[in-house]
Amino acid sequence: MIININLNKRIDDSYNIYIGNLDRLTFDMKVAIVTNKTIAALHLEKLRSLIVAPEIGEAIIEDGEQHKNLATIGAILDRLCDLRLDRKSLLIAFGGGVIGDMTGFCAAIYQRGVSFIQIPTTLLAMVDASAGGKTGVNNDYGKNLIGAFNQPKSVHIDTKWLTSLPRREFNSGAAEIVKMAATLDREFFERLESANLSDERELIAAIAQSIHLKADIVMRDEKESGARAALNYGHTFGHAIEKESGYGAYLHGECVAMGMIMANRLAEALELIREKEAQRIERALERFGLSARYKTPNPEAFYDLLFLDKKTRDNKITFALPRSIGGYSLVSDIPKELVISAIAKGGE
Amino acid sequence: MIININLNKRIDDSYNIYIGNLDRLTFDMKVAIVTNKTIAALHLEKLRSLIVAPEIGEAIIEDGEQHKNLATIGAILDRLCDLRLDRKSLLIAFGGGVIGDMTGFCAAIYQRGVSFIQIPTTLLAMVDASAGGKTGVNNDYGKNLIGAFNQPKSVHIDTKWLTSLPRREFNSGAAEIVKMAATLDREFFERLESANLSDERELIAAIAQSIHLKADIVMRDEKESGARAALNYGHTFGHAIEKESGYGAYLHGECVAMGMIMANRLAEALELIREKEAQRIERALERFGLSARYKTPNPEAFYDLLFLDKKTRDNKITFALPRSIGGYSLVSDIPKELVISAIAKGGE
C-alpha cells in the first residue's frame, strides 16, 4: 500500500509512505543509518541485509527520550562528519519517534540539509511521526522547543519490526490511534472499539487509516496555523504531564491518554461532549491498558506549565477538544477555573 | 538606499537591505537582541534607544569565532526560552558574521522557526553575510558544517557601528569587497584600486556595490548549485587555512585574502589569468594591509583539508578562480600536483 503525501501542492515536497513487507532498498549514494543501541542489537543486521548502497555507515546513540537533546544531535553530526557524508548523502532514521525526530533534525542541519528517509520501528512512530515533518529535540524548558520542519523522502512501514516491541510501547502507540479516531472519524472509532490489533491484517488497516487521517490534516496545514491543531487533543495536557512527571516516567502515548482524559473533562464542562461518549473514549483507551489517571500535586502550577508549550501564542492556549465522537473543536480563552477544575477531575 | 532581495521569485522570501542612518525600528512583537559582550558594551544602549517594541530582551554571548558552536546555540536557545519568546517573536542579530550566522540559525530552529533581522556591525558582515541566507556553526570537523538556509526579514546597514571597529577587522571585510570586484566587476575593481574607504561616501558606495553583486548571484542561485560557487574564490583554500592554523589565529577575511593568492597561483598555472593581472589583485589587497602569505608546514596534508569543505561533492572539488580581472571560472578535476604546487607558491 502506498500513501502519497503532497504538501503545498509542490512536487518537490511530495513523498510516499509505503506500508508492507520491506524486502530491498537500493540507493546510489552513501547512506548512514541512525538508530539506538536497543534497535541496533535487535534489528540492525537485518536492515543492513536489505540495503544496497555504495557505502553504509551507522550512527548509534543511547536509547531513551532523556537523550533527545542538542548534545546528542552534536554527537550524531560528529559521527556523520566521521563517515564523510556529503550533501548528497542520505540518512535513514531507524527507530521510534525519538530517532525519527533527531534524524530528521540532523538531516535539516547537517551541511545545511541532506535527505532522509524513515523506517519506524514502533507503533507510535508508524502512526504519528511518519506523516508530520516535525523534527527536533527537547531542552530543559520543554519538549521539542528546538527543531525544524523537514519532510522525509519516503517512509517505509513494516510491522515485522514490532514483534520485539514491549507491550507498553505498543499501547502507547495505540493511544494516538484512539486519539485520531475519536476526533476525526466516528466509523473508524467504532471499528476500533472491537478491533483485535494482535491480528496483523487488522493492525495494518488501523495504521493505514490513522496515517490517512493524519496525512489529510497535515496536507491541509503543514505549518500548523489551523486544522493541524486538531491533532493536539490530549497533547497540551500531555506535554505538561511529561514535563511535571519528568521525561521518562511515562511513555508519550501514556501521557497523551491521561491528557485526553483531562481534555474530556474540559469538553464536558463546555458541553462539547456528553459524559457517556467521553466514557466510550476512555473505555477504548482501557482496551490498550491506558486506564491510568494523572493526579498533579498542584493544579495551579500544572496550569502554568501549559503556557510553556510552544503552541502558546501571546500567552493564549488553544485546546483541541472532542466534539461528540468523531469531531473536534478548537477553543481559546477558557476561564482559568474551568481548566484547573478539568485538571483536577482528570486525575480522579 | 534600499536593495530588495527576492529569492526564487517567491514574494514571501523577499526582503530589503536598508543602507543609511538607522534612527528608529518599530515592532509590534516581543524582540530579543542577540549580540556579544564587546558589541553590547559599545553599542547596546544606543541600539535599545532606537527600538520600539512591547518587550526587548537580550541574549549576550562571548565574543569570538571559537564560540561559534552548538553549545553556544544551546545557551542562546535557553535564553530565548527564559525570555518566553514565542513563535511570533523576532530575533535581532546585532554584531558581526558570527552573531549573524548564529542568530539566523537559532531563528531557524527555535520552536521550529521564528523571524529575524540583521543589524551588522562589521564591514565583513555588511558586505558578505547580509545577502546570503547561510546560517550555522562550526564543529571539530570544520566551519559551518552545521546550519540551515534562512533568510532575514530585513537587513539594516549603518556605518556608524564601524567607528569602533578595529582596523584589522575593517581590512578583513575589505578582502571580501576585493574578492567580489576581482571576479565579478572589472569597473568596480578599478575604482577600488584608488578608492579611499575612510571617506564615508566612498565606503557606502563600495558596500552597496558589493551587496548588489552578491545579491545578483544569490538571487540567481539560492541553494548554491551553480553561479553561487563563484563567491568561493579564496574560500576553498581560505577554509583550509583557518582549519590548519586553528580558528582565531587569523581573521576570516585574512584567510580569504591568503586563499585568493593561492587561487591566483592556480589560475596562472591554468592560464586563466596573466601574472600581471594577478599581481593587480594582490596589490589591491595590500592597500588594506592584506599582504601576508600563508605557508603551510605540509602541502600534502593541507591538500587533504580541502576535501573536508562541505562544498566537496563525491570527493570532488570545484575551484572558483579569477578569469582575467572581472571574470571567474569554476574548475573541477584539477590534477593534485597542480593544486599542491599552487598551495606552495601561494605561501612564498
What does this structure look like?
The structure is a homodimer of 348-residue chains. Chain A is α/β, with parallel strands linked by helices. Chain A folds into two domains: 2-164, Rossmann fold, CATH 3.40.50; 167-345, Dehydroquinate synthase-like - alpha domain (Dehydroquinate synthase-like, alpha domain), CATH 1.20.1090.10. Chain A is built from twelve helices and 13 strands. Chain A has a four-stranded parallel β-sheet with strand order 6-4-7-8, with helices on both faces. In chain A, strands 1-2-11 form a three-stranded mixed β-sheet, covered by helices on one side. In chain A, helix 5 (167-184) packs parallel to helix 9 (252-269) and helix 9 (252-269) packs antiparallel against helix 10. The longest helix of chain A has 21 residues, at 200-220. The N and C termini of chain A lie far apart (42 Å). At the A-B interface, helix 2, helix 3, strand 9 and strand 10 of A face helix 2, helix 3, strand 9 and strand 10 of B.
Give short descriptive properties of this protein.
homodimer, 348 residues, alpha/beta, Rossmann fold, Dehydroquinate synthase-like, alpha domain, 2 domains, four-stranded parallel β-sheet, 13 strands, 43% helix, 19% strand
